[in-house]
Each structure stands twice: as C-alpha cells, then as structure tokens.
Here is the input.
Amino acid sequence: MRNGNVSSDQRAGLDPPTAALVRVAAALAEGKIAVLQQRLAAARVAAVPDLWIEELLLQSLLVVGYPLALVAFGVWREVAGLGAGAKEGAEQPDGAAEQLAHEDWEAWARRGADVCKAVYGRAYHKLLLNLRALHPALEDLVLVDAYGKVIGRPGLDLKRRELCTVATIAVLGAAQQLHSHLRGALNTGATRGEVEAVLAVIDGDLDAERRRSAHVQWEDVRQRKL
Here is the structure.
C-alpha cells in the first residue's frame, strides 16, 4: 500500500506478498527464464520471504517436475544473488527450512496423512482408493513423499501452498487436478475471494481454453459441499 492507495490484489483478497508468490507459481508451469526472472525479482520487491520462495520451488517438483523446477531454482539463485557468481562461502537462504535427513519415515507418513486429509477433506478416502486402483505404490508416494516430505514442511503455510498449486495447475491445464486443489484451497482456509483473486492474478498466463476450463472448474467447486 502506498500513499493510502489499496492495490487491486488487496481489494480482490490477496495481500501483495501472496499475490507476488502466486505470480511466481504461475510462471513455474512454463519455465520461461525471462518471466521467472521478472516475477522472482518482483517477489523480492513485494517483501515475499525468501523461505516462502524456497518452499514453493521445492513443492513445484511435484507439480511441474524436475526439469522445470531446476530451471526455476537456477533463476532464483541468480535473482537472490546466490548463483555461480555469488561470493564463495556465501550462506544459502534456508531460514527455518527442514532438513531432508530423517530416520523415521513413519513420521513422514503420519504427517503426510494429516496434511493430505486437510487438503482433500471428505474426499480423502476416495483419493486413497483411486490411488490404490491406479498403482500399489502410488499411495505411499503421495502420502509419504509428496505430502509428508514436501508439502508438510514448515516454512510456507498450507493455504498459500494450495493457492500457488491452483495457479500452477491452471496454467498447466490439468482440469481434474485443478478441481481437487480448488477444493483444497478452501479446505485449508482460503476464502472464495482469495481463490477468485488467484484466478484474476494469473488470468494473463492462461490461453482462452485454459481460462474457460479454470472458471468451469471453479464454478463447479463453488456449488459443491466440501
């Protein structure tokens, strides 16, 4: 906010750091270096905590895959001054980041189940049945590796994780997964206004078909009982 003016993002329901983080999440789906550079730089101007960005990039491995996520990490290191040209021995930003070394995988399994239940709500048990039907290994991969090891990490709250996931998946055009995570955003505390603000923020990143699909999915979610 400057000179008493309220930004369009704030009027729409997103604080400036969250809106900037959502814009980064949308850019992750395409991996265009120039766009990533601009949005990561804008995120720093908007006072997005470095730890939020680190956690968003880590969870993007689950959504866009290693190739695009590694591109984004490289751009982020340059924007944050931690790339190949950074001073040798410079401290990497980790804040309260959780170490991946972990002796008790069952702790990840428990945390993953709790986080997944929070995201999927009443659809949680249906999700597990669907995963088991697709492949026996998928349930553990989703609960332990995705939700336990990555999404359940401290450093970025679950609501913002879901809002960013909505942005990335909408740009990817994966309608079924978008529907799940629109519900997930509401299940984890986002308001309808915040979800609609995310769709507004990423509108320019969507082509006509993906824009139409995103709004169809959102309208369906709005009418359902969570």
